[in-house]
Specification:
flavoprotein, 20 strands, about 500 residues, 10-stranded mixed β-sheet, FAD, alpha+beta, globular
């Protein structure tokens, strides 16, 4: 029995029970199976915040349909390098999952991933021209080779009937479709990965335990908090802070210089969800459009097929929301508590430079139910409000970063923050996060354990066939990995 002053000793302590911590612990167990791993989660179960299935869109973000990864430049051309990069990163995650399934570390793939067509859909002459340029720039790449393009409403009706039912036949429309797309239940995947490590005795987990302080000591880090059974204290040689929106505050409390200058702005979102049989049966795809003018990239509208706990549903959103909380189950004072002297000016600069974004968010917060219905009807003209319910998605914290010569910059995407000595790391930011977890956690390994990477390479190559490879220079290997993971995850058989 542990005494009140008991101190748990770990090689690695992971704060937060989400997909990032689960992925990092899984990789570490592959390369150092004797290391003692510990998870600390403030809620009573893992994957209840951003990794929860209803707290994200479940899109396997591969840039097959997400237009925010391929912006149109002032000269009219379309920049697709980010789209290719995101696709390659998701392929790394697919390889890791395939390896874990093949070796019995994950259960049957249908418990967490489903083949789902990814469709980009636009209307209006300018948007049609943009989508055609995007298609022309991407479909020659091996990872986008299966992409189809059409401006024919009849073909679009075959792909996704709800998009064309009741639509003005004179309206110019266009769509691309990729059958390589997926829907991922990141909550189930996270729980599988963590519980497998815990059940096999390869890791310990402390649920219902909130970390309050992270301080250096002579041997690494001393982490303190409060749990259901009283005080919690642990020591660890390495700490990973994968606590979603709370990661910023915990990194600040650690005192590492590398966290200075970072701030955060909380963004919440709402979705409309339906399980109406006539809607669910008619729409089996993830359809992404273009973000409204002035909207942040993460607010791209999408009409999504979801499969959670074996039950299908369709979601539409996101509708912007606001809460000062940094977690869905966080404190109303999270935003205020994150303000420091070193990030105050960058945060104010971002506010002044992004007045259009602030105006957009305010207008969205004030949007009536009828206005929200009209936004849905732009994608599904026949939608009826009575078929849908509103659900609040997970809380995100957009990174505010101090950039030399520019001051505060609002940064979209994810940011890995590591101490100079590599003894602590944390993850800030949002989408495409979960989908690219394997790539991001490999970056953590490379930055925090550079002296071990050479010894770890054989194990990492076994788990991820293209590890260490520049896929842009070896597109044939990327295509081969895509085909192999499609087969290993049973996606082709279930398409």
């Amino acid at each position: 029995m542990k005494t009140p002053d008991h101190i748990d000793q770990y090689d690695v302590l992971l704060v937060g029970g989400g997909i990032m911590s689960a992925t990092l612990a899984t990789l570490l167990h592959q390369v150092e199976p004797t290391w003692r791993l510990g998870f600390v989660e403030r809620l009573d179960e893992v994957a209840q915040e951003s990794s929860g299935p209803w707290n994200n869109a479940g899109t396997g973000h591969a840039a097959l349909c997400e237009l925010n990864y391929s912006p149109q430049l002032p000269d009219g051309s379309v920049e697709v390098s980010k789209a290719i990069d995101v696709n390659e990163q998701f392929l790394v995650s697919r390889q890791l999952w395939s390896f874990l399934v093949a070796n019995g570390h994950l259960p049957e793939p249908e418990s967490f991933i489903h083949p789902t067509p990814h469709i980009s859909f636009v209307w209006g002459a300018d948007n049609v021209a943009y989508l055609k340029k995007r298609y022309d720039s991407l479909h020659g790449h091996p990872l986008f080779a299966g992409m189809e393009y059409t401006e024919d409403p009849a073909v679009i009706a075959e792909w996704a009937p709800l998009l064309t039912q009741g639509r003005d036949p004179e309206q110019p429309v266009a769509a691309t479709r990729s059958l390589d797309g997926t829907d991922v239940d990141f909550g189930a995947l996270t729980a599988h990965m963590i519980h497998r490590l815990v059940d096999n005795g390869d890791a310990e987990i402390h649920l219902g335990t909130e970390i309050r302080t992270i301080k250096r000591d002579a041997e690494g880090w001393r982490v303190k908090g409060k749990g259901k059974n009283g005080k919690f204290t642990a020591k660890a040689r390495f700490v990973f802070v994968g606590a979603g929106g709370q990661a910023l505050t915990l990194l600040q409390r650690s005192g590492i210089e590398e966290a200075r200058g970072f701030g955060g702005f909380p963004v919440s979102g709402e979705f409309w969800r339906t399980t109406a049989p006539e809607v669910v049966e008619a729409h089996q795809a993830k359809v992404y459009g273009k973000a409204a003018v002035g909207a942040p990239p993460m607010s791209v509208p999408h009409l999504d097929t979801r499969m959670v706990n074996g039950k299908p549903a369709v979601m539409f959103g996101p509708y912007a929301g606001f809460s000062p909380r940094f977690l869905k189950n966080g404190s109303l004072f999270d935003l205020v508590k994150s303000v420091r002297l070193h990030n105050l000016v960058p945060m104010l600069q971002v506010g002044v430079r992004n007045l259009a974004l602030v105006k957009y968010l305010v207008s969205e917060l004030l949007a009536s139910k009828n206005r929200q219905l009209k936004a849905l009807q732009e994608y599904f003209p026949g939608a009826r409000a009575e078929d849908w319910e509103k659900v609040t998605a997970g809380q995100r914290v957009q990174v505010i970063k101090k950039v030399p010569g520019q001051g505060g910059v609002l940064q979209f995407g994810t940011e890995v923050v590591t101490a100079a000595d590599g003894s602590i790391a944390g993850l800030l930011g949002a989408s495409p996060g979960a989908s690219t977890a394997a790539s991001i956690m490999l970056e953590v390994l490379q930055r925090c354990f550079p002296e071990k990477i050479e010894d770890w390479t054989p194990a990492l190559e076994k788990a991820i066939g293209t590890y260490g490879m520049n896929l842009a220079e070896h597109p044939e290997c990327a295509a081969e990995a895509l085909a192999e993971t499609t087969e290993q995850l049973g996606l082709r058989d279930r398409a």
